[in-house]
Amino acid sequence: MKQEQTKTAAPGTGLNRARLYQLILFPMNNGATNVYYILTMNFIAYYANGVLGLLLMFATTMVTLMRLFDAVTDPIIGALIDRTSSRYGKFRPYMVLGNVIMIISSILLYFGTRVIPDGLEWLRYTCFVLFYALYVIGYTFQTACTRSGQTCLTNDPKQRPLFTVFNTVASLIGMGLVQFLAPILSGRLGGYNSAAFFDFMIPLAIIVSAVLTLLAVIGIWEKDRPEFFGVGGNQEKIRLKEYVDILKANKELQRLMVAGAGCKLAFSIATNMTVLCMLYGAMMGNYGGLYLPMMIVGYVFSAPFFLLTVRTSQKYGQKKSLVRYTTIALIMYAGVLALLLFWKQDVDMFNLSLSSINIYTVLFILFFGIGYGAYYATADMPIPMVADCSDYETYRSGRYIPGIMGTLFSLVDKLVSSLGSTIVGMAVAMIGISTLPDGNTPYAEGMHGVVVVLFCVVPMLAWIATLIAMKGYSLTGEKMKEIQAVNAVRKDAISRGMDLKDAMEKWKTIDQVPAEFKEN
Fold first, then answer.
1. pTM of the predicted model, to two decimals?
2. What is the pLDDT of residues 349-399, one digit of tens each?
3. What is the largest CA-CA distance in the chain?
4. How many CB atoms neighbour CB 172 within 10 A?
5. 416 vs 68, 256, 261, 303, CA distance in Å?
């Protein structure tokens, strides 16, 4: 045991550092859940409406209601994680159990509901809701571990920004695979409303998610042990009703909730498949020729921003990085907004086209590419910042409760982002469309205004909210160094027999910490 601590702690600082393979593999847990997330958020309404024949508003509203149910279950599952201490660790059991539940529920949801006869529509509606709810429980089990598990993986302020990069890479493996294959397969399998599309995508998602889960379990295996949990000592059990007081006291988590939830809402709406079908298909007239190339443009522009965000975060802290690159995204999307306002149907000079490049296309690629790149590089940054808030809670109160800290963040995040599909569905219904548009849907009156609001205005408002929330966020790079140093010296004292309360009283500020516990 001592030997392992020597390998993973930074000599002379008490920092808990991860090996490179652990930083790479554990974020695959997020990739594993994002495979299901993107399928559910973008395509389950198509399945319910197009394959099962359920009402459009029911289909889109259920996405919102189940996201709300997901949010409600978060604190409960977070409390279970915090109370768990088994021979298999604190986080691994929930990662595996969650994935197994999602496999079972997906089979029931996407295949079981189809065998219900047309004459039993009430049963079809009921089973759809029940199987969907089962999926949500599994999803919450596993996704809660991404935010909470990283606290035991590393607390090094220079390593945590790397978690953002590897987390995004993992998301691309899971979520990007679905986004890349979906438009190709939809054209060959009869569209997003066809049963054949889901016959291929669901088994693929199950296999990819299971493999990513296995990699994530390997990544956290060595760190999922009590010696890497908080400052040590006898941790008292926290009752559910105490979580409200914890949230009230942890102002930094509150501010991060606003930033994270706003960005998630913007992302879920602006990248919604229905919105992109209206933009690239109905408005620009070439969904098949624009969707994938523009997605690639966004990813290509993201690459340099990932390097910039890591460098900024390591030097100045994650707050500085989030604010700087969110500001760039906001400025660039103002340009995208202007271009979309100038759009004219069937007027080449005011249309996006990759076959006949014009100034409109060049400007759109630049504004969208830089804006999306800057935003996408910071989209997952709130996840490691949740770990900072969890360490701050340990510093503030002595409690190690990463499960509840992560799921309190998820609670608000999901409550807000749950509105995404309903907002899109309502916007489509308001302009008189009864079936969700796909890549072949022709332009209809009112689509222009809907796309402008959903693709540009909503993200811009979310970024403004993020910048406002971050103004009062105190967990800068320097503050996190102080927090980790104080936590480290307390942990060392507790391991030598000191009481947690006495350690909390003795060391409160960086000037009280011995030099060997300060990062050089």
1. 0.72
2. 888 888 888 899 999 999 999 999 998 888 778 878 888 888 898 898 888
3. 77
4. 17
5. 9, 13, 6, 28
